[in-house]
UniProtKB/TrEMBL annotation:
Organism classification: Bacteria, Pseudomonadati, Pseudomonadota, Gammaproteobacteria, Oceanospirillales
Gene Ontology biological-process entries: phosphorelay signal transduction system; regulation of DNA-templated transcription
CDD domains: AAA
Molecular function in Gene Ontology: ATP binding; sequence-specific DNA binding
Organism of provenance: Terasakiispira papahanaumokuakeensis
Protein's name in the database: Two-component system response regulator GlrR
SMART domains: AAA (SM00382), REC (SM00448)
Length: 449
């Protein structure tokens, strides 16, 4: 990153030093934003994210290390340089161990200042263009903040957990992080952990030897090996069975896997990005997700907003996907009428971007005119509301209906219901918790009838 493009946030409660350093940096070709205390600096971070922060260690109210702590939470991967007095050098050494990029002793020497800045910038910016995020269509401030965090965390090898509602674009963000990383020339491999039964999921992830189980007629290389050197994306990781969670944790700790039925271990070099729409903290409380694995996967958490949280993106997304659909199927379709676009913008979008894409494609396929009308949008929205749910949503609905039926049949007797379901009581209670069901509800309804 060149000096004339780099943006530095300078934080110091000494006005004279702040002015001196600001002039020095601007003369070196950097863009500089000044903040006179930690709280002002945090506001600047939200409005205009910098490429680097330089902060004094000793400041009133919020010192440099407190500010660094806030920066780590809000902008993981953003490099921070701390300015210290000579007597604070031991503290500065400790700070570098906590993740601060480096420190500068007072008085700040000009050549050393530029040297450490260039070193920090060279390690924090893998690419100077936006090709890595080209597939993500947005001008939402919330999304831009997420993408800025994604760009910064991409250069490190830490595990990232992407959370947010179904259809919000979690895999798209994972692919963008991969493209912005040093692993971008290696494979990106994705798997939906909620779509496969336990043994098949384990085989897909870790591979298996010939004869490992019935039907294993040949050796199979798992996705960890297929993604070696690159990125493995674990979608819906919250639905991963506990037995597979144990094996995944061991693989991440040891950087080795052992295929099913094999006697040898295989070294792996894989960056993990995972995603879920589930509340993993609640899943941990219900012993459905391992706490140690959660902290391995959730080194950095990026939460994608729902489409309702970024309504300013709806027209842009609609036009983008209309152009793509028209190019593939019907080039005569040119756009939406004003009323049609207004209806799109005001729709609730429970299925988020995925639902919007489906609606746009239906409109393009069914419209007889170059401009899509309000009535055609209304029809597509109606069809979408009655459409086929996702696999995970359908399975969840089936589970809840099934549990309700066996509890109603047994008048809320969990022991009998678990026996009918072929589950032990502990597993059955976990299923009830997952679907917010209580046995007492069915006892009361029975006695009332």
């Amino acid at each position: 990153m060149t000096a004339d493009k780099a943006h530095i946030l300078l934080v110091d409660d000494d006005p004279s030093l702040l002015k001196l350093l600001s002039l020095r940096l601007e003369s070196g070709g950097y863009q500089v934003t000044c903040a006179h205390d930690g709280r002002s600096a945090l506001e600047c971070l939200k409005r205009y994210p910098p490429d680097l922060v330089i902060s004094d260690l000793r400041m009133d109210e919020m010192d440099g290390m407190d500010l660094f702590g806030h920066i780590q939470q809000a902008n993981p991967g953003l490099p921070v340089i701390i300015i210290t007095a000579h007597g604070s050098i031991p503290e500065a050494v400790s700070a570098t161990r906590q993740g601060v990029f480096g420190f500068l002793p007072k008085p700040v020497e000009k050549q050393e200042l530029f040297r450490i800045i260039e070193e920090a910038l060279s390690q924090s910016a893998p690419q100077c263009d936006d090709t890595w995020r080209r597939e993500i269509i947005t001008h939402s401030a919330k999304m831009e903040q997420i993408l800025e965090q994604a760009r910064r965390v991409a250069v490190s090898d830490v595990s990232v957990l992407v959370t947010g509602p179904s259809g919000a674009g979690k895999e798209l963000l994972a692919r963008a992080i991969h493209k912005a990383s040093t692993r971008r020339d290696k494979p990106f491999v994705a798997i939906n952990c909620g779509a496969l039964p336990e043994q098949l999921l384990e085989s897909e992830l870790f591979g298996h030897a010939k004869g490992a189980f019935t039907g294993a007629t040949s050796e199979h290389e798992g996705l960890f090996q297929a993604a070696n050197g690159g990125t493995l994306f674990l979608d819906e990781v919250g639905d991963m069975p506990l037995a597979v969670q144990v094996k995944l944790l061991r693989a991440l700790q040891e950087r080795q896997i052992r295929p099913l039925g094999a006697t040898h271990h295989v070294d792996i070099d894989v960056r993990i990005i995972s995603a879920t729409h589930r509340d993993l903290e609640t899943a941990m409380e219900n012993t459905e997700f391992r706490e140690d694995l959660y902290y391995r996967l959730n080194v950095v958490n990026l939460r994608l907003p729902s489409l309702q949280e970024r309504p300013e993106d709806i027209p842009m997304l609609a036009r983008h996907h209309l152009a793509r659909a028209a190019e593939r199927h019907k080039p005569s379709v040119k756009g939406f009428s004003r009323d049609a676009m207004a209806m799109l913008a005001s729709a609730p979008w429970p299925g988020n971007v995925r639902q919007l894409v489906n609606v746009v494609e239906q409109c393009v396929a069914l419209t007889p005119t170059p401009m899509i009308s309000e009535a055609q949008v209304a029809q597509a929205l109606s069809h979408e509301a009655q459409g086929i749910p996702s696999f995970n949503d359908a399975r969840a609905e089936f589970e809840k209906t099934y549990l309700s039926k066996v509890l109603k049949l047994t008048e809320g007797n969990v022991t009998q219901a678990a026996k009918i379901a072929g589950r032990n009581r502990t597993d059955f209670y976990k299923l009830l918790n997952r679907h917010d069901l209580e046995a007492a509800m069915f006892k009361e309804s029975k006695s009332a009838g």
